[in-house]
Amino acid sequence: MDKHTKLDFNGQTIYIGIDVHKKHWTITILSQHLEHKTFTQTPQVSKLVKYLHRTFPGATYLAVYEAGFCGFWIHDQLQQQGVKCWVVNPADVPTSNKEKRRKKDTVDSRKLAHRLRSHELQAIYVPTPSQMQDRGLVRTRQSMVRKQTRCKNQITSILFLHGISIPESGRWSRRFISELEQIPMLQASGDILLKMHLEELAHLRHIIASLNKAIRDLSRSEPYRENVRLLKTIPGISTLTAMTLLTELCDINRFKNLDHLCSFVGLVPDTASSGDSETICGLTPRQNKLLRAMMIQASWVAVGKDPALMMAFHTLALRMKKTKAIIRIARKLLNRIRYVLKNQQNYEFLVAA
User: Fold this and answer.
1) Is 129-219 a CATH 1.20.58 domain?
2) Cβ(317)–Cβ(325) under 8 Å?
């Protein structure tokens, strides 16, 4: 080739598959018809972008990587530097048996690049950095609540293990904890054991109280204030539930319809079909665990406050278990949430569901 010939890939698309690791990335680059190369580099977006601009000037760049431990900062930096980027669910990447058995970084990056070029991938929604941090705050509270529950169970187990009667006063109230602190153990080591667990519990309660205040303050700020107010007009929705919904969903308009929203939350059945037969296998394992649990919990509250939902629940409970009926109520409640957020209107109690 003439050394004075200027490279120009204008109008062509370059596909980049990135297998992401903490200390290195394995990258495969494809043109529309050919495979350019597969290589390994340090985890630096700027280094990859410089290589693309130098090797394929004027081209349109489309990169993809699997969602995982690294979050979305790679996506954000690539987008900022002119490289369109998709993040995909690893479970949704078509994988052959050969690719599963030959699990290697080069195989994974080539698979992503080829699936991207053949339009077999679907990008997931990518929250903004501020949305990610707000979501992280709410999720941290849930994590601390789980740790607190585990700590309480450990304290109860210690008492049962040594045959110590648990105080009769209200469980885990201040008086209850004060009585636990006065329980004498047989050995000094036992006193230290119980004391350490009680100190951990006190520390976790303090953290949760601080997080509750931070979430309340966040709910009063933009862009959450009005949406939290609207959601709290729905029976069963508290400030915490509203903030969990808003930080997990981010944008209600990204869901095409109610079925799409229910699928994201995990309130759809898992089915298995063969020939003319189809079997319902309970709820799908694909779910947003936090939202599904919270929606079911909120539904139990809502059926006691909303006459329409109460009527629907009683009708459903006549022909199925209550635990199954509440799932259908959760879908109805989710539909109300979707309506309120999309139309920016207060919820109004209805006579019929």
Assistant:
1) yes
2) yes
